[in-house]
Amino acid sequence: MMRTAFDRRAVLAGIAAFGAGIALKIPEGRAEAATVVVKYDWLISNGQIGDVVALKRGLFEAEGLAVEFSPGGPNSATVPPVVTGQAALGQFSDSAQLLLARASGVPVKIIACGYRSGPFAFYSLPKAPIRTVKDMIGKRIGIQPTARFVLDAILAQNKIDPSQLDITNIGFDMTPLMTGQVDAVTGWITNTQALAVIGPDRIDLMMKDTGLPSYSNVYFATDTALAQNAEVLAKFLRAVAKGWAWTHEHPKEAVDLTVDAYPQLDRATEQATIGLVLSLSFDAGTKSKGWGSFDPDAIAEQVRIYDAIGQFQGSTPKPEDCYSTAILEMTEADRPKLG
């Protein structure tokens, strides 16, 4: 099943689970255990290929870590295992999820970002092309309910009234576009198999071209972990960055290694998608500051936009409470600079 880029309801459900556990406390020193568990927001896929490479090529072991991946899924909450210390750190699909969590009082911070921009995109056809956000005016936009707030943010950033669009709730397939029910559908650009039904005339409007800042594959940790176990987090990030660098240099081999480890993935599809995955992971910013880096100003801009459209349940988080650059700084010399 294809997921949306921003499953807001899943984030809030996870926050509720965190809040409901009256006996839960942020543990001290849990991340120093021999085994480091990483809680992912979704199933292991091409977005985690560098992580898998780091595991299978012994890069975590070289840092003295025994790393275990804990995949997510439709009914899996990402926040509670990290906050309760069952996992040393987690990965959200998008930076917006971290902001929602922080606004709801969950003490977590972004420590690194795997994708330079969210892979979420709008797809249209030449008969009603949508190449810019302004092209959405007067069009029928099909979007998953869990991603609607992202469209609202994009429209607000571009000063477009939602009433100027015909917005329809859709599911996870591309059928409404192909049958002419809508002029655009949404989903992840890395979901090559699902997008294949649209055909070669597909027009993509990527998140990076909408004016809304976004990061994806966002690694996060608790405030306490950052204060008490920064060295463990730095070892993890150092190894995973090298895993992504090896993937950059050996894409075909990295795909084969990942599919061998997770045979539910389709080898041909993943080989066809790896170039796109790498384009999301490396750019001029990573060439300058290394894989995993992010711009604090972009996080602050996200906070401003989501606050403007009333998305935060609770107080608006301070941007500086939503991220920490400490782990990036600790690993600056070791994170490969490629772009």
TrEMBL record:
Key words of the record: Iron, Metal-binding, Pyridoxal phosphate, Thiamine biosynthesis, Transferase
Catalytic activity as recorded in UniProt: N(6)-(pyridoxal phosphate)-L-lysyl-[4-amino-5-hydroxymethyl-2-methylpyrimidine phosphate synthase] + L-histidyl-[4-amino-5-hydroxymethyl-2-methylpyrimidine phosphate synthase] + 2 Fe(3+) + 4 H2O = L-lysyl-[4-amino-5-hydroxymethyl-2-methylpyrimidine phosphate synthase] + (2S)-2-amino-5-hydroxy-4-oxopentanoyl-[4-amino-5-hydroxymethyl-2-methylpyrimidine phosphate synthase] + 4-amino-2-methyl-5-(phosphooxymethyl)pyrimidine + 3-oxopropanoate + 2 Fe(2+) + 2 H(+)
Pfam families per UniProt: NMT1
InterPro entries, per database record: NMT1/THI5 (IPR027939), SsuA/THI5 (IPR015168), TAT_signal (IPR006311)
Pathway note: Cofactor biosynthesis; thiamine diphosphate biosynthesis
SsuA/THI5-like domain segment(s): 49-254
Record note on quaternary structure: Homodimer.
Family membership: Belongs to the NMT1/THI5 family.
Protein purpose: Responsible for the formation of the pyrimidine heterocycle in the thiamine biosynthesis pathway. Catalyzes the formation of hydroxymethylpyrimidine phosphate (HMP-P) from histidine and pyridoxal phosphate (PLP). The protein uses PLP and the active site histidine to form HMP-P, generating an inactive enzyme. The enzyme can only undergo a single turnover, which suggests it is a suicide enzyme.
Protein name: Thiamine pyrimidine synthase
Lineage: Bacteria, Pseudomonadati, Pseudomonadota, Alphaproteobacteria, Rhodospirillales
